[in-house]
Amino acid sequence: MTGKFVAVVAAAMLASFPGSGQNASDLLQKGLHLQEAAGDVDGAIVFFRQVVGTAGGSNKQLAAQAQYQLVLCMLQKGDRAAAEKELAALENNFAGMTDLIEKARKLIPGPAALLPEPWGQNECEQLNIKRDGADTGEYLFYSVDAWPTSVDENSRKSEYLAPFLSAAILRWELKTRNSTRSIELTLDRNTMRPIEHRSGASVVTTKPRLESNDDLGDALATAFVGPAADEEESVFLLRRLPLAVGFKTKLPVRSNTIAPVQMELVVTGMESVQTRAGKFNCYKVSFPGVGQTLWIGAEGTRPLVKFQSGSVEAELVKTWGAEDLLAPFAEAQRAAGEKWTEPRVEEGGIVNARFWNQDLTLRKIYTPKAEIPQELQRSMREYSQETGATIRPQSVQMRMIGGQQALSCLLDMDKDRLTRYAIWIRSEIASYEYHAHLSSGEVATFRWRFEPILAAVKNLQ
User: What DSSP assignment string belongs to 204-248?
Assistant: First the structure.
């Protein structure tokens, strides 16, 4: 009996030991589940070490991934020294896995200096806002644009323009149910400080450009007062700081204050955050002075992934780069023997193009597919109100252009005796607005020529 009992106990212990009868891939998945879903970092470490031990010789990629996860686990535990030890093991034992090694190195930065710019050219990101857990249709929008570089040699040498050639244009916009406000900053991309340039005999420093239609005060915007919506460069600067668990510093914050206030931040941990834009490993950054928490991506472009202040939160839904969303229009125009002017990239994810009496404006904005029809109708109503033009009801047409939902109509400008042919196209990641300014006798012939061009537009994103 004793021998049988010992055998049963031994079998039970063997069955409960990680890796018994399981392959390395299963062990890795169990470790990821414990780390990301269950929050059991210590339990995940056991599985990851088992993968490194069992797959190190047969499946280097799997073992290297587990070793990388060990770096993340140690950072989540707040043990930077242990994280550095696991990183050294990754570098020594998996030297060929350069992508994983580079990702791990970025998680454990060195001196407290600004990291290289993580964003690319013309980057935009949108975070949708929830209040008490419910979607509101409100959003935060951040963008980074390079100063236009297509200037001649003489301009490059001018005392005024030369300082701007290394500039970045940083912009954020907050859209609530009641108001829209934005701030734009032109800063030196290396130092993240305002640019000093000559204007006549004086030296001038760039100042924030503020815009708002909030004349009476918007209580819905109050939750964002602080780093998330700041006249300084807080959110952008956060993405370049050498964040690590336990990291502390102070940032100058000028939101709703006369002078910048040095506001303390602390990185309280690392968390995996799932959003509509994907899953991100994030540094959890707390600003105790204003009760705000921001989750900054630890890898890639290090985006702002999530924001929380009390019952108000915002989560990343979409990021954009320098993709040319107007290319399908340009190709259709060229095929018809016509050509737009060179598209002009503006701040905040907006691109404009012109062709004689026609204007095309693109804006990068995320819209859930189910909401696109009502957004098209809203755009038409707002355009009519802003221009004072009268919509011809019988001309309103819902249609498909380039594979996306669209709305077109004719609007009469009685005062000028002109007609505008307007088209709004909306995808999940962009809004296109097209206007042609016509005399009353031009409408029919213009559409006769232009509709085939519209029909040739393919694969709008």
Answer: EE---EEEE--SS--GGGGGGBBTTB-SS-HHHHHTTS---TT-E
> Per the structure block, which two tokens stand in for 155?
């301009």
Bridge partner list, 401: 404
Q: What is the pLDDT of residue 194?
A: 83
Helix (H) or strand (E) holding 32: helix 24-32
The CA distance from 122 to 207, in Å, is 21
CA distances for 433 relative to 46, 302, 326, 379, angstroms: 55, 31, 11, 9
Listed residue (186, 144, 190, 140) closest to 164, CA to CA? 186
For the chain, domains (ranges, CATH) are 2-107 (1.25.40), 123-320 (no CATH), 327-456 (3.40.1000)
Joined together, the tokens standing for residue 226 give: 């602080």
pLDDT score at 261? 82
d(CA 143, CA 125): 6
Q: 232: Cβ–Cβ under 8 A, 6 or more apart, which residues?
A: 251, 252, 253, 254, 255, 260
The strand pair at 167-175 and 180-188 is best described as: antiparallel
Taking the C-alpha atoms of residue 334 and residue 352, their distance in angstroms, rounded to an integer, is 17
How far from 364 is each of 90, 141, 146, 429, 461, CA to CA, in Å?
39, 10, 17, 6, 11
- Over residues 396-404, the mean pLDDT reads 94
Q: How far is CA 333 from the centre of its chain?
A: 31
Q: Which amino acid is at 137?
A: G
Instruction: Name residues whose C-beta falls within 8 Å of residue 403's C-beta, 6 or more positions apart in sequence.
Output: 458, 459, 460
- Cβ(296)–Cβ(307) below 8 Å: no
460, 404 Cβ separation under 8 angstroms: yes
Tens of pLDDT, residue by residue over 69-78, are: 998 888 887 7
Give tens-digit pLDDT for 33-87. 888 888 888 999 999 999 888 876 678 888 999 999 998 888 887 777 788 888 8
- Dihedrals phi, psi of 182, to nearest 5 degrees: -150, 155
Instruction: With beta carbons less than 8 A apart as the criterion, state whether 124 and 349 touch.
Output: yes
Nearest Cα neighbor of 186 from 159, 209, 156, 210 is 209
